[in-house]
Amino acid sequence: MPNTDRNQGSHATQGNNGQSEMNGAESLVKTLLACGVDTCFANPGTSEMHFVAALDRIPGMRCVLGLFEGVVTGAADGYARMADKPAATLLHCGPGLANGLANLHNARRAQTPVINIVGDQATYHRPFDAPLTADTEGWARPVSVWTRTATDAASVGADAATAVQAACAAPGGVASLILPSDVCWDAGGKVGVPLAPLPVPKVSPDAVQQAARLLRSGQPTLIVLAGTALREVPLADAHRIAAATDARLITPMSNARVSRGRGRFNVDRVPYSGDVARDKLAGIRNVILVGAPPPVTFFAYPGKSPRPYPEDAEIHVLARPEQDLAEALARLADELGAPSVSVPASVAPRGIAKGAVTSEAVAQTLTALLPEQAIVVEESVSFGRAFYPGTVHAAPHDWLQLTGGAIGDGLPLATGAAVAAPGRRVVALQADGSGMYTLQSLWTMAREKLDVTVVILANRKYAILLGELAGVGANPGKTALDMLDIGNPDLDWVQLANGMGVEAARAEDMERFAELFGMANGRRGPFVIELVI
To answer: Which positions fall inside the Thiamine pyrophosphate enzyme N-terminal TPP-binding domain (predicted)?
Structure first.
């Protein structure tokens, strides 16, 4: 029989010298702060109450409440993408973790450092199989680079320090620390010593020389850039290489963060459509990967290749995701003797678009009105096909995307990015169907007074799936089409936003959209524009 006569007292006990001892929860908070983790996105429950109480006694941790765990995990992802350091989550037991798994999957695909803290049943309570008992560690492991369940209060601090080191090890990932409630309330906690960051491996001279030989061969070569290779300086080196060798540059369709806009080098993306991608990449003989996996189509289709590049093209690796991508590109450019190149002259914005709402018209207006150093979070799914190529000449900005295909990440990403980068306007380009997955993000934006302009692309259907029906050769009837229609009844995003405490307005033409977009970006706090398309 498990021992149930455990000390469940207050946050501290008196030691032999009369001084209070820390409990496990206090050692966790102090260790996270010592490791530079000062922001926590939380949806706590009973098992996490000692952590919550510790926040009152230990200053320095900003705790942001989310009303759904998918908001919490997605916001932690967005925060780290912009802060270049992790935030913590605080989730309640296995089911709370399960609610947040989709956006932890997206964070894993984005290679985002996240300290994923999950409360759990007390160690001695677990054998009784209470209702919330679950395989919490088993659920966490597939989305995590590191997973551990703390066994006693004295180990919590060291475990937390190890979690931070694991999450921050290149290229970055989710480190999940599961804390049974008794290890949080028990005395004997110790502050973990921050661990030195693990060194980022550099590519070998052979890898650089092999890539240089391929590029000098004259064969059509594609360089696929991902991860930190998409920041401003590495992109400049990639363009040096391309200019010197006639290589083509491209990124995967979805990326964690891209530096772009006027005064920066542009890079194209692999198209979503496999047929369009295969046409675009026809004739390629060599594919050189820089922090990227070999390109693959998003889905399989009957009788079609999963590769968007020619079947006979050869794959080569300059740098793996965990290696120093910027240093690899700089060394390759120097190996080739590639001179510096200037950013192509920007085309003056054409001004705001007028008339009917189209993807191209929205991109034109974004180019004209996007604030300097904005952060664009795109989960536009089908309607936004023109947004990325059409905003090349917008003001300098960072572009964040849904990386793992699990929709419902856009609004949480925008929330976290705004917390990480105060003073920069966040613009969320959000499809209406996927926006409903994490609508509660708007409440957090209002509560935290975050500077986010949300543009809801309201076509009232899962339009991307209409194309997928055709792609797999289906012949849909009324029942099938009804499953893709979210317009019966119509969602009213103005009322939904107002109900979450966010001001909102509707636009049905480009003139009204431009008016609202300019107004929203010039004020403090969040604002929602429902753009009817």
So the answer is: 22-127
Looking at the structure, tell me whether residues 287 and 365 fall in a common domain.
no
Residue 482 has pLDDT above 80, yes or no: no
pLDDT at 468: 67
Provide the CATH number for the domain around residue 128: 3.40.50.970
Residue type, 485: D
Range of the structural domain that residue 371 is part of: 359-532
Q: Which amino acid is at 232?
A: E
Q: What is the number of domains present in the chain? A: 3
Is residue 259 within 8 Å of residue 398, measured between CB atoms?
yes
User: Omega of the bond prior to 127 within 30 degrees of 0, cis?
Assistant: no
Rounded Cα gap, residues 162 and 170, in angstroms? 14
pLDDT at 3 over 50: no
Is position 255 within any domain? yes
Angle at 11 between CA 116 and CA 94, to 5 degrees: 30
Q: Region 390-414: what's the mean pLDDT?
A: 97
Same domain? 365 vs 263: no
Classify 506 as helix, strand or coil.
Answer: strand
Note whether residue 108 is domain-resident. Answer: yes
Residue 50 above 50 pLDDT?
A: yes
| pLDDT tier, 79 (very low <50, low <70, confident <90, very high otherwise) | very high
Q: Which of 344, 319, 337, 345 is nearest to 234 (CA)?
A: 319
Q: What is the pLDDT of residue 47?
A: 85
Q: Are residues 523 and 438 in the same domain?
A: yes
Identify whether 191 is part of a domain.
Answer: no
d(CA 127, CA 69) in angstroms, rounded, equals 26
Which residue, 352, 493, 357, 499, is CA-closest to 428? Answer: 493
Which range, of 15-24, 233-242, 522-531, averages the lowest pLDDT?
Answer: 15-24
If 0-12 CB within 10 Å is exposed, 13-18 middle and 19+ buried, where does residue 199 land?
Answer: exposed
Q: Is the pLDDT of residue 515 over 90?
A: yes
Task: Tell me, yes or no, whether 371 and 308 share the same domain.
Answer: no
